[in-house]
Amino acid sequence: MLEIRWHGRGGQGAVTASKVLAATALRDGKYFQAFPEYGPERRGAPVQAFTRISDTPIKLYSHVTDPKIVIILDNSLIGKVPLTDGLPEDGIVLANYEGSPAELRAKLGLKGRKVYTVNATGVAMRTLGRPITNTPMLGALVKITGVVPLDQLEAEVAAMFGKMKGDVAERNLAAVRAAYEEVVSE
Question: Average pLDDT, stretch 27-56?
Fold first, then answer.
């Protein structure tokens, strides 16, 4: 079972990203859970969301304490929230971060683990016109892990955002694809 913990701020789409990934896993014939953990927070407050994906039924109903992957949608949380708690030595950190993975590793004080960065805010501004980083982070996640096929993610993004007015789906698909191409590792 793959467990993912998403860190972001209210309004950035961490909960939506968790749900889109889970729905994509369903498209791919997998079992899933997707849920947030927050209280009366408002836009801008730190939030967490969780995703579990498995080839077999999931019978665990607690929040994710030992994620295999930690995804950071907002780098202003670094140093303010315990982002990497419970992340094993072979875990993965994927962050919306303009600097290099080595710089992020130093900033987080990490030893071991795999570190990936993508300027998801830049991608979002170019493609969406707003700093909502959830769909770019999904594209980067699929590139580095292959947790779900890219075409399945694109189909789910098109279905979910296609219900909205205008070209929201096309812009989110562009964000997924751009981050897929731009994510970097050490």
Answer: 88
- C-alpha 77/C-alpha 145 separation (Å) is 23
The answer for residues whose C-beta is within 8 angstroms of residue 114's C-beta and 6 or more apart is: 90, 91, 92, 93, 144, 185, 186
Q: In this model, does residue 37 exceed pLDDT 90? A: no
Structure tokens at 44: 């801008």
Report the number of secondary-structure helices (H) and strands (E) in the chain.
6, 7
Paired sense of beta strands 31-37 and 46-54, if any: antiparallel
For residue 12, give the 3-state DSSP assignment.
Answer: coil
Domains in the chain and their CATH numbers? 2-185 (3.40.920.10)
Q: Is residue 4 helix, strand or coil?
A: strand
Please state which of the ranges 37-46, 69-78, 103-112 shows the lowest mean pLDDT: 37-46
Alpha-carbon dihedral sign for residues 82, 99, 5, 65: negative
Q: How far apart are CA 118 and CA 34, in angstroms?
A: 23
Q: What is the mean pLDDT of the chain?
A: 94
DSSP-assigned states of every residue in 27-87: HTT-EEEEEEE-SS--TTSEEEEEEEEESS-----SPPSS-SEEEES-GGGBTTB-TTTT-
* pTM: predicted TM-score of the whole model, two decimal places: 0.94
Query: Which token pair is 76?
Result: 């202003």
